[in-house]
Amino acid sequence: MRIGMALNYSGGFAETAAEAADLERAGLDIAFVPEAYSFDAVSQLGYLAAKTSTMGLASGILQIYTRTPTLTAMTAAGLDYVSDGRFTLGLGASGPQVVEGFHGVKYDAPLARTREIIEICRKVWRREKVVHDGKKYQIPLPADQGTGLGKPLKLINHPVREDIPIILAALGPKNVELAAEVANGWQPLFFHPEKADVAWGDALARGREKRDPSLGELEVYAGPALAICEEDEVPGYLDFVRPHLALYIGGMGARGKNFYNELACRYGYEAEAARIQDLYLDGKKEEAAAAVPDELVRSVSLIGPAGYVAERVAAFREAGATTLTVTPMALDAPGRLRLVEQFRELC
To answer: Which residue windows are coiled coil (predicted)?
Structure first.
């Protein structure tokens, strides 16, 4: 089992790079840099490329609405170049709150946009003259939409690789189906091993039926919280995770437009998800967190004694996860390093 970790994206680059170098020596396979509404992920990824040497680096995620498809391709090729072929392009739709609320861009047609962006990226990396006429993107622009001076161009530089891996963050059935069809990897959130097949099995099967064999097997990047602890310490750690779940299930979207709430419902927590959302949107965040079931918190996390965590790793593996992108529950860099070292031994 490969081990990944999302790095701090809102602090100092130097401090994060120093921690990343230690994690690399401890056996971390891949580090993700999120992009929310702090500094951009690309700056930090470029900095990390110069401070590490063997560990994979990934965007986790770049929103599909915030860059043109060709700029996304250029950025990925540049990061792959400065990292000597260690970059993985993580893409995702994010949600209306970030895309419309922070970037001021209309949140529309995520499936069509995602498919076309991936097609265009791969054309750019192969150094083809880019010609694309899709539902959302036209390259070059037709004469009646532009100046008439546009013509197909190809990337000047020669990329390190023409097949930079692409991971799609996806939760809804149609998005997951698309990931299984066209991406190298799929990144779900709140992956529940025992209920993953109920939530996503049909969508994954449909996507794999249309998958190009040249893409190889679909990699699955699950992201559990991690704490290796004594049994009597477990409730305290679960209480740390609970507000995070409540935020997503209750607050990441309006009623009827919350992908994470819908996922909790597919897991079988319809009544609980409705209560969490009602409480959260009414401003009762602590009560919303308390309403998140223990069973759900523990199932999507790796929290407990070493033997229990090893059993859960086996469950994640059995459910199809190939990389565990953990969130070590420690207060400082030395504590996170110790957890990753312990976890490496269990994997």
So the answer is: none
